[in-house]
Amino acid sequence: MISTSTFERFYPDQTRDGAVAFYGWIRTQTTRQTVLLNLGAGPPADRGSIRVLKGEVARVVGADIDPEVLRNPELDEAHVLGSDHTLPFEDNTFDAVLCDWVLEHVSAPSNFLREVYRVLKKGGAFFFRTPNSWHYVAIIAKVTPDWFHHLVANRARGYPPGEHEPWPTYYRLNSRKAVSAEGYSAGFERIELRMWEPEPRYLVFNLLPFLVGVGYERIVNRYRLFEGLRAGILGRMVK
User: Fold this and answer.
1) Which CA distances in Å does 88 have to 57, 141, 183, 231?
2) In the chain, where the domains are located
3) pLDDT (tens digit, 9 = 90+) per residue, 77-135?
4) Buried/exposed 27-55: b ≥16 CB within 10 Å, e otherwise
5) Looking at domain 4-238, what is its CATH homologous superfamily?
6) pTM
7) Tens-place pLDDT, residues 128-181
8) Strand (E) positions, 35-164?
């Protein structure tokens, strides 16, 4: 594991932090009157206060297939979902829906997005952050079995022992083409996508791969030609 000082030598501030970029965007589009659904909320956030919107908006409702969501204190209300993507909410309930690292786990994109569209109010926005299927981390994830993910994923990210095991991934809604096609098919009127390459936290387990990751980050962020190879897709779909 590389030292904190080594990491901060290359990334002394939060300029490349994907959570800062994503939640900063959400905060510019929400108000004290916003009723928000955190879909895939899971257990409490691991990044401190930046991911916590409770108290900044009118209400944060959480929903997840993991019962851990019921013990998440960052929510005003929590629901455990079934596996059929049906949401237990009335039509036109929410001003905003948020999915953070969820779309890669969606097995039925069309059904999922139709439900998101249904529970959003007219003019409401669906915000999401998800891995880009053309990035090297996603490519490795797609060609390796689940047992490998369970063995190395949390360790590579520097997560402590006992952290939740990775959920199964499908990568059916994780490219700009797929997101746009499925989003418009579900009925959304506007879709905005931002490609984001953050600091290579997945590679902090060893100095050499970390340095390779730093080089990759510098190249794909400098040249727009390579933006399709950036790690994450930050998106907003407007109903």
Assistant:
1) 21, 31, 21, 32
2) 4-238
3) 999 998 777 999 999 999 999 999 999 999 999 999 999 999 999 999 999 999 999 99
4) eeebeeebbbbbbbbbbebeeeeebbbee
5) Vaccinia Virus protein VP39 (3.40.50.150)
6) 0.89
7) 999 999 999 888 877 766 655 555 554 544 444 455 545 788 899 999 999 999
8) 35-39, 59-64, 77-80, 94-100, 120-131
